[in-house]
User: Fold these one by one.
Assistant:
Number 1:
Amino acid sequence: MTAAAGPIEAAVVWLNDPLNWTNPGGVLDRTGEHLAISAAAVLLGCLIAWPIGLWLGHTGRGGGLVVLVANLTLAVPTLALLTILPLTFLGFGRPPVVVALAVFAIPPLLANAYTGVRAVDPEARDAARGMGFSGWQLLRRVELPLAVPYLAAGFRTAAVQVVATAALASFVNGGGLGQIIRAGFGLDIAAGGGQILAGGLLVAGLALLVELVLALVERLVTPRPLRNRGRRAGRRAADAVSGA
Amino acid sequence: MSFRLGYRADPGNPWFSWQYVRDNSDTILAALREHTSLTVRAVLIAVLIAVPLAVAAYWFRALAGPILAVTGVLYTIPSLALFAFLAPYLGIGVVTVLTVVVLYALLVIVRNALAGLTQVPPEVREAAEGMGYGRWGRLFRIELPLALPGILTGLRLATVSTVALVTVGVVVGQGGLGQLIFAGFQNNFYKAQIMTGTLLCVLLALVFDLALAGAGRLLTPWLRRRSAA
């Protein structure tokens, strides 16, 4: 019906149909799934990457390991992990999707945790040692608080990347907003063009929203004196991972 | 007959099978060829756009901000959304896949090339100027060669991520090895096919990376001499 009009008009029409939002499998449902999957994946990534990254940074070893993990995950296609994991012991459903996305969240989290601890002023570390802190106290009470801006930067990079990648879960019917795009491609381009474009706008919009919200959070958890320095440094650590 | 096979227990669906590779070598090679050609074309186009952009940003500092910002925004758009934006206009096919992967590769190459160019020491630039090099002569004979390590780093990262990204092209039916992986998943979760596609993907990325690293060594002999000394 709207196929004669351009894809943009068709997308506007699609987005203005309330049923497309409230139906089962509509935008609201899919957004909820998208956020639930992404949150679980980022949480899992943090639970794995932060302790390892902080510990490696504390001991000052394993810089090579951090780079290796980043390079390896760069070469493995998301599609491959999404299709392989459901066939393992994880079984079908949400767990394999969450694990697959967590794998891609780990490099930025790991690298920033590592860099954050390494970037702690050696004098602060020496002073803490001089005050008689044990290694564990040093990590918990000096290095960890000073690494928070880096952890926040890594969290933001990882979360945005996971929200973006979660759209691919639709390839294995894993839910999320990507499902809307896939369904549009299933229709064929003339009839589904509007829905495809609408889905794309929703996915990109959600990624952008998460980026903005987390940028704000990152600013809030960074102590004022560290703000400019921390952000620039955090970016650099994140860039080292994304390779840019 | 054939559906009875579906009832066989796990031994019927191994993670790897030479039998599968032998019987389907044509399909596998065709997918590999397509993947390779898509990657090579995408990276070539990306370099041809990105290096001039980096040079423009290097010469006219005012342009550096906007160029990096635009490529940065392109990079944050989720890949599936980028496919969704382009497919209604470019159609279902190779052009859409190429455009998407080129757009993603741009940022990585532009940033690294620009970093390489800005790392050229000012004394070298001044010496070149003093020797009478013009803007273009200096660019081609001094600055670009010295920026080569940066450009190659960008190129390697862009190539490796392009190999992985091409698989998303499945959504428009042109995913190269992704096509193999996805068909294996849909075809009763045929593990051997999924694994073969995945391994070839990772292997292809590795081969490209090593080839570019080797080319980099050959093109920048002065770096080797310096590290040996």
Note: The radius of gyration of chain B is 22 Å.
Number 2:
Amino acid sequence: MTNHCCGPGYASPAEAMTAPREKLLYTIAIYTGTGIQKPDYLCTIDVDPESSTYSQVISRLQMPGIGDELHHSGWNACSSCHGDASMERKYLIVPGVRSSNLHIIDCGTDPRSPTLFKVIDGAEIKARTNLSAPHTVHCLGSDIIVSMLGDAQGNAPGGYLQLSKEFEVVGRWENSMGSIKFGYDFWYQPRHNVMVSSEWAAPNTFMPGFDLEEVGHLKYGREIHFWDFEKKEPKQTFYLGEDGLIPLEVRFHHNPDSSHGFVGAALSANIIHWWKDAAGDWQWEKIVDVGNEPHPEWPIPIPGVISVILLSMDDRHLYLCNWLHGDIRQYDISDPHNAKLTGQVWMGGLLGRAPEVNGVKVTGGPQMIQLSLDGKRLYVTTSLFSTWDNQFYPEIRTNGGCMLMVNCDTENGGMEIDPLFVVDFGKEPNGPSRCHETRYPGGDCTSDIWV
Amino acid sequence: MTSFTITLANQGGAAFDVDHRKPLLQSLREHGVDLPYGCKYGGCITCAAKIISGKVDQKAQRALNNRQINNGYIILCVARPMSDCTLEVGVESHDKLYRNPFLDPLAAHELKADIATPLEAKK
């Protein structure tokens, strides 16, 4: 049972898993880079199977201007503030990667129709902190920090923006970036006084699109960084080399006592696992290696490009998406050193295994995913980033993205695409848009951290 | 002020006089032209346009590789005109902007300026 006397979220991951089923999703959709001169927007999607508008967008909140490229988002409060009765999970912070604007969206007053509460102008953030290109948002008790991938001119490594709970710019969170070359995602595990951060590239490198040759010129990341969380400075770096090209999503176990964590190396298409050994030293290893796949029209085999990973709330299953191959995989990581493949489904992708699903042509591949708290429903969207979409899946300009749902067997393992759920973003009122990250009003598997 | 005339070939040949000191994106938007843009610091390519004739100063751009520059692309949020120019704007001009990087690799001289190897002079 949720303890209503306390603050937001849940007392433990186990309690989160008993929460009521999600009835609404918040998913961003973009027009940036599509040729449609409309703002990006936040969709509210009905996922209550008892509702007459199930599997439909029921409201759309436009941002004030065009060109933000909404991408990821984060709550103002999560289970890290569970003990603080003055906090409420009410506001979604939705950054624009290109504009550097931070949109603070009130999802609490009317959860079915969120409203814009405040915009922190990208120009103010650049002027006050010399940072741009916001990406991951995590709350830290009453504060909010945002990984910023560039300086005000779009050069790496950027840093971390700290906001107060009133959404005022506090300044730079970190005391030092050490020798870190790039930023991207981060996750913290306070009981081990550690934060782990990963590396994409400088905004000036990744925003215009992907030049493969720039990987060889060391313009893309291949390291992960272990921070002294209290001192707010990096302490140790692991060079992952060819096994860890472009390490993106960082996920610690939800269990706050665990030191185990994982990162998906997008271009190497590997899962990297780390943990603290008996001597108290951090170690890493590769636990999943997705092989390249031949394609009749390609001179070289296609890498999977693992664009996202996610852990179930009970830390038993790891999900990954191969955005170019077109599959989502479920691994049992009960033993985190030995990942066992337990499920796989196909949607879109360049290998042509599932060009159409539930009557909708899937343009793009499985990309962002969000898992229900009970681990049984995985919501999947297909767009990665406007310029990269335009390179690999140019038909997305006219077809738009889509959202599908995958039913996951949490007992025996296995996955199956739900035949009744599909949201076709190709049929949006202002024209085809592209959908990316999703959050639930009650928290989800990539929001909540326990202190 | 020095002004130049900017003609938009794919918007019915509409022409606008602009201040040479201002970025083209700013000038054209002030004239009411609805153009895509993103970062406004020359790093993100969303506002790319194709120059058909004329010359611009776009030293501040960081988004384009040399192949894109050779194909005529300019970054409107930082490019300033140095002459009268004719442009194609918007995604309709992006036919050669995006390529599949696995199918169509760049030669060493086609990379971004900071890592490109200059072509040897032809003998």
Note: Residues 42 and 62 of chain B are 6 Å apart (CA to CA).
